[in-house]
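Translate sequence into structure tokens.
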Amino acid sequence: MDQSKNILIFGEMNGDRLSSMTVQLMRVGKRLSEDLNQEMHLLLIGGKSQGAAEKGFGYGADKVYTVLNPLLGNYMTDTYLQAMEQVAYRLKPLIVLFGQNDRGLDLAPRLAFRLKTGVTLDCVDLKIDAETGLLEQVKPVFGGKAHSHYYCKGRYPQIASVRDGAFDPTDYDPSRSGEVEKINFSLDSAAVRTRFLRKEGAESLALALRLASANIVVCGGRGLKKKEGMELIQETANLLGGAIAGSRPAVDYGWVPSSLQVGLTGKKVNPQVYIAVGISGALQHMAGCRKSKTIVAINSDESAPIFRFAHIGVVGDYREVLEGFNNEFKKNR
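Result follows.
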């Protein structure tokens, strides 16, 4: 794509606000734009909240675009892919960033195919190569045991999806403002091969959204020994106004859905307080929570590796520790 420039963020809404994933993308997008001396643009498709779109400027966007069309009211692959393809040809971005979620996984590779360019999914780091000016895309490989570095040479835009939690959310500057630009174009309804029927709420999805933005996370691991231990984890999280999560064994045992897995092959979280219950502290798990401001470890094994990372450590039976904590919290609340 000739004369490509600027970084384009595929933005998403969470109700009437920009999603946590979008705000994370804008942090790395702004850094890349400064390294390249380019602008960072935010794109919102189908969103109806003008106020949320305008807040994109406060999160660092130099321009904010919205695409409105009756066919874009609900997410469908065929309509959103048409929209993204037309946006790409009109704006000619140098880099396009998606979140590593259901929409990003669906759209990013399809858009790359349409535009005859490359794509790297599930990136945990992005930076500009000083010699070539290309986007260096870093992602875990071999089950998270190593990182691989990718470049897309000679094809634009460079497309990547970013793992949730890989970057902190960007700061909001209320002094920044601007006028949202609307992009209008027609979509070919004959090319839409699917039909939207209805939305159905999913409990695991709601829990995953809560986990992504929670300031307090209580995570259970193999040391719980049985699924009922997650009920105690949930009680503690509810008392603290936090979210629950699980390690890889907790997911494998079916105690929590995979959408709540924290670790190198799961989600990365960086809450104010991360309470690890019955978790040994393997590097694969710690890669998902090491950015937490305060890590509290509860484990019956005093030699568990988790205590090397924890700011506060408690050695003992997790049931006694959490039940005692919960009871005291209720008394003093």
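Note: The chain has two domains: 7-191, 203-332.
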